Amino acid sequence: MFKKIFLNHPQSVDESYFQHFIQACTFSFKMFTGGLACLVHAFIPCLCVSTGSKAIVNLHDKMVMNRHKQTSHRKGDNTSHERAA
Prior knowledge:
Blueprint: H1 2-6, H2 8-12, H3 17-43, H4 51-75
Helix pairs in contact: 3-4
């Protein structure tokens, strides 16, 4: 039960529990600050015009694209999945 609750998911993304904890806390902080910027923007539209969308793009790159690259690299897939700049 302990392994299922605390270790299965971190291992599925090639992280230890503590590595996953740090990553999840970092993502949580970035989501919180991006959400706060969106809230500020809701009240004062001229402020934080693109802060929320930039946070989403950054988080997507780190959470999804980077993890996909790591998975592909481990499997020996040389296909590039990078976004066009």
